[in-house]
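Job type: complex structure
Entries:
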Amino acid sequence: MLQHRKKCILLAFISFISVYSFYSCNKTVVVNNPVSNTNTTDPLATLNLLPAAYNYSNQSLPPYYLSQAVSEQDNTPAANTVTDWGATLGRVLFYDKILSINNSVACASCHKQNLSFADDKAFSEGFAGALTARNSMSLVNVKYYRNGKFLWDERGATLETQTLMPVVHPVEMGMPNLDTLVNRLNTKAYYAVLFQKAFGAQTITSDKIGSALAQFIRSIISYQTRFDEGRTLINSLRLSYPNFTAQENEGKQLFFNPLLGCNGCHKTETFTAPSPKNNGLENPSVDFGVGGITNDPLQVGNFKVPSLRNIELTAPYMHDGRFATLEEVIEHYNSGVQPHPNLSLQLRNPDSTPVRLHLAADEKKALIAFLKTLTDHGITNDPKFSDPFK
Ligand code: HEC
Ligand code: HEC
């Protein structure tokens, strides 16, 4: 044991020395760098940005993304189309902890790139350690939602305004108001440069902050999954895909089978519905969802239908993170749908009772195998969506 401890201390010492020498080597390189030798400090020096912005505005989307069924879901307003520098500014804001009152959390703290811009907790910790009331949402394909409203209960009327809500939220980032936010950003030289590049002027306003964040988020589009490979080869959602295993194709048939209903709500290649739905999680509703915002009793228990792209990466599931695994989600639809008065039609039998799917064990596995073909490592690995801070 003692022997082991000594070894550990020695190892720790060696790694300390190597890390230290690596660090000092790095420092030497920086000192010799002609840019750093000049007296003017580069305002972008704390950031890992390339001289040219990444391509956010003109990604090579597959043809079916340009179909009417998908393009009509696009909620981009004409006044805030994505530009490469606008999204770059949005990316820096997204990863900047100075957006929270005590510099402790960034948007990226609860929306992590490797987890499809969601996180792995039922409820996320805000700036002071308090928990959010709902499960963090994946930010993939937020651009494609025809209703054009945001958050589980759709209280975010536009993405441009919704992106500012977490900043002043008492649990999430805790800023007293948006003026404080603007003053904060004014203290950082890199924002003057980035606002100039994004909007043609250095002036920082909260509107521009919301717009840049919205541009970054709308650029997070998933189109590089194994499902997309198959969809590109076969011009149909329903036919089998040659790049799929037999099990994945079986799951795909089930998913698109009207008797199961999945595709009645998680529609098109974006796997979202045009409007909020009630999938019978509980009755009576603990969380009123959309009905809690509109005060319409017919909307109680309705929630935004999240895209199923990258669903493998965003556990736990549902607005309250109640299901830890996809197996539990499938079991809900298989046997657990509750007879809520607002239960959406897709989950009702002709006599109005909740559907019971009676899936066999291998059918449940097949459905999950299909859902995993929607995983997009193009998003989780792309440096243009990564943390730009050094
Ligand atoms: C403390 C964790 C936390 C932080 C920090 C946070 N979010 Fe979120 N985000 C959430 C949660 C939780 C939800 C769902 C809340 C709800 O529906 O009530 C959410 C939802 C969203 C949505 C809605 C997605 C959709 O499909 O409707 C967007 C967009 C979003 N956040 C962007 C941001 C941005 C931009 C920031 C930084 C300015 C940010 N978030 C900071 C936890 C967080
Ligand atoms: C009536 C419309 C409807 C049908 C049919 C439907 N869903 Fe859903 N689905 C929803 C809604 C609404 C949510 C979010 C509910 C919530 O969190 O309150 C959801 C959530 C999910 C989630 C979790 C998403 C997340 O980010 O947490 C998965 C996975 C899912 N559904 C898969 C399926 C599968 C598989 C089927 C078919 C067996 C199916 N759904 C059928 C409406 C539907």
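Summary: Residues 1-39 have pLDDT under 50 and may be disordered. The first helix runs from residue 2 to 32.
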